[in-house]
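REQUEST FORM: STRUCTURE PREDICTION
Request ID: SP-0412
Submitted by: Lab K.M.
Chain count: 1
Length (residues): 759
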Amino acid sequence: MARISLFLSSVAFAAIAVPVQAQQAGATADNGADEIIVTGEKSARTLQDTPTSIAVTTAERIQREALISIQDVYNRTANLSETYGATGFTIRGISNTGVGAGGQADAASVYVDGAPIPKWALYGGPTDLWDVQQVEVLRGPQSTIQGLNALAGGVVITTRDPSNAAWGGDARVLWTDQNDRTFSAALGGPIVQDELGIRLSAERRADRGIIANLTRGGHDDAMQSLNLRGKLKWTPHAVPGLEAVASYNRVRREGGYLYEYSRTDRPDFYNHRVATGDQPSRGAIASDIAVIELRYPLARSLKLSSVSSWNRSRVRSQVDTDGTAQDIQAVDNRYLYRTLTQELRLNYEGERLRGVLGAWYYRRSGQLDQNSRVNIETPTATISGLLRANGATAAQAQMISTAYAGQLPVIPVIYYAAQPEQVETMALFGDARFKLTDRLALIGGFRVDHERNRYTAQTVATFNGTLPNVNALGAPYASIVGLINQGVLGLVANASSPLASNSRTFNAFLPKMGVSMEWTPDLTTAFTVQRAYRSGGSSQNPARAQLVAYDPEYSWNYEGSLRSKWLDGKLTVNANVFYMKWRQQQVTAYFGLNTYDYNTVNAAGSHLYGFEVEANARVGRAIDLYASVGHVRTKFDQFRLPTGATSKLDLSDTQFPYAPRWTLAGGANVRFGGGFTGNVNANYRTSVFTGVGQDQAQFKVAARTVVNGRLGYDAGSWQLFAFARNLLNEKYRQYDYAQVHLAILGEPQTFGVGAGLHW
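STATUS: Completed
RESULT:
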């Protein structure tokens, strides 16, 4: 471990000392002078001309490292990391769902060809990397350009466009010793020469799984998926300059839940993973995405663009929450959401002024249906209060409530909730640069955002057990036990509610300003300041069956950037340094009735700071080196709960969950001659806290280093290769539930072979 960490540090800082090309997180081009074009900021710019911290993973890197899913990108990018299983990711220490376990809106989003992917489908939606042209990770607030759900940043996936000129295709087979089989193919070309092209791609994956279920048989994490995509590109001769691209993406996945626990109380549990849950832990995803993009030049420097997207996601998540062979608890959640977006943009590229002006419409509607069997710890404090209110002394109330809890340790409840939701957003935005001189430029931007959301909830809670006999504590206490029994039924009944709805409206102005200085053609620095936003809404208190409103979050982000090239463009070093101040953060507060008496409140303030340095170098014609270093420090500065809250959790002076302080990655591509190629890469994450609060040190998982490699022969039209994931068999955990001997374990050592065709 120490040697690997030293290797990563050496690669990273050697690459900085011998300048290299950054921000592409290891992407390389065939020519050191080639430029990478990024589009995540709604304009086509070179990477070196973009002060925003953007890490780009190209199609070439996807092939060289045998990357399969977006999770592979998360783990190989500076200041980007997976969270709980495959539930999501953090950018600069901020989870895509927020850091305080409160609120409905996301803090970061994933887009595929311009369509936002719902967070519920990220672990198995259309985020695999077959036939993908480029992945851009935008780090830091993108509220000015991306608007909704972009306080922490965003991930932009662009798939390959059809060719109007010539037919071609690709195919790939991957086979691993963990019984994971992937079959991929793509074919495309002109239907009408130089006018209308088509590209069809498909990927079928079948994974037997590695977590054997000793109670039900089979493997909990077994998975099958099918990803189909079709794209049309039309450039009609009758309308010179018009370009239209239409795509449809269909994903069907049936497999393991978004995270899978393994038992840690068995011998050699890392290499022999088992589970004992008696109920299914499965996730089924059906996603359909349609996108139409139109581009037309209105004048020599002015282009009009339109992007329309429609997305329907159906997700069913089942999990055995107790993880034992007994039928104790289970959750069955079903999500059905439809998302519609429409964006219009005017891009201007003048000699001194370059910018974009746009309008945006977003509508998401759908519903979450929860059907759960849960056990609520019998609330002795609430029972004691009930007894004291009826004349008992404090000592008597404590004694009786404790004895009663001995008879009924938990309150079994069948809980059903329907939670329809509708979010509608309209915005105007702009982003521009104006050259004051040939070297000095002003940066400016804005977004005027109007959001209206409606949150609705209906719940039915039913007692699902047997109440203690009134004589359980002896005849003298029969009437008291009867009173407590009625109180328990009342607590359950209080969690039921008729259909209730709450509408909220929010308006936000999000400015951006900065300055850029081109010291030489190969050295540019910039400084920007921008405001970011995460909308408010309403949350349901399950125990009280109430809808409770909460307000938006806001942050100010201060960022400096360096873009530099060296040795005629063969070497580049790019860096960003940042500071964010965050206020009115949405967190979860508890109010004392029982463990389900909680809702979202605005109670926290925090700050974070850090940097990213990324680099790539062409060392002769046979070797490419790349490296990245990310560092972030996070801290909750204040935590003030509202009156009536009984939460013992205090976030003050604690860190964000799943926020590694250091993220390092490095690798090398080697061409041996005669068609033989090789790649070795490694990524390192420091330890993280998987919980929040003053006791978060109890919820800490150790640092880990993962080394991967690929060795192959490329004949141009075909290739054969072998690959390894977690080559050194690093044994690590993403989450550890030590109290019940369950953990989410990291990927095991995996060897595989593959073959590819290109024509």
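NOTES: Confidence is low (pLDDT under 50) at residues 1-33.
Reviewed by: T.R.
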